[in-house]
Design goal:
alpha+beta; 5-stranded mixed beta sheet; 4-stranded mixed beta sheet; about 30% strand
């Protein structure tokens, strides 16, 4: 969020009006109700994880440091953007079809049943996925030089568990899986070039995300 009486009152009032207008413009480009997608925010976060873990290793969007694989696995009316595995500072360029909503994690975490063990319960998976996000700090998201507001209010946590590998050929059943994080859903952007940056860090685990995109909408 942007932080910014004789003659000084007029100047301060003008600055406040400009700041308020910037925040409104950023808010108008985002939505939390997702009526267009037909999915709840929680369902979108689950789909994002299933998308993120389904790509071939040599085309993986989270390992991609340029953006050449940003279209891998994309389908439907929502376009997913990747962060990175572990601490990541990455700048990518991605071409996005016009008319697509855009969904991405500011910072997020998932916990799921390891292969070959049945010891994990759904409640425990939810607890473990939430631990790091309870200590998330320095959250930021900036679209076209305008900060997106209320980032702490955009936390999405699994209320029920799912399988992060659902639909992935040859993958094992990782149920219970649970997701927790801070997310943004952008309304479809106008055609042309846009800049987007987002990230944050976990104070208890040290993971840091600092992701930048040049988005070309066409």
């Amino acid at each position: 969020m942007i932080r910014n009486i004789p003659r000084f009152i007029v100047l301060i009032s003008a600055l406040n009006l400009i700041t308020g207008a910037c925040e409104v413009r950023a808010a108008e480009k985002t939505t939390k109700n997702v009526p267009v997608t037909g999915m709840t925010p929680e369902q979108l976060s689950e789909r994002w994880w299933q998308w993120a873990l389904s790509a071939p290793d040599d085309q993986h969007p989270l390992k991609d440091v340029q953006g050449v694989h940003c279209a891998v696995g994309q389908k439907g009316g929502v376009w997913f953007l990747a962060g990175g595995f572990g601490s990541s500072r990455i700048a990518r360029t991605c071409t996005v079809p016009h008319g697509k909503s855009i969904f991405f994690p500011i910072i997020n975490f998932a916990h799921y049943r390891p292969r070959g063990t049945d010891a994990l319960t759904c409640e425990r998976a939810k607890e473990l996925s939430a631990l790091k996000n309870d200590s998330a700090i320095d959250l930021f998201a900036v679209l076209d030089d305008t900060p997106i507001d209320n980032l702490r209010g955009r936390r999405i946590r699994s209320s029920s568990c799912f399988n992060v590998f659902e639909g992935v050929p040859g993958a094992y059943d990782a149920y219970p899986s649970a997701s927790d994080g801070f997310w943004v859903l952008l309304k479809p952007l106008a055609k042309g070039r846009h800049t987007l940056s987002f990230g944050g860090q976990y104070s208890n685990g040290g993971m840091l995300q600092d992701i930048a995109y040049t988005l070309i909408v066409e």
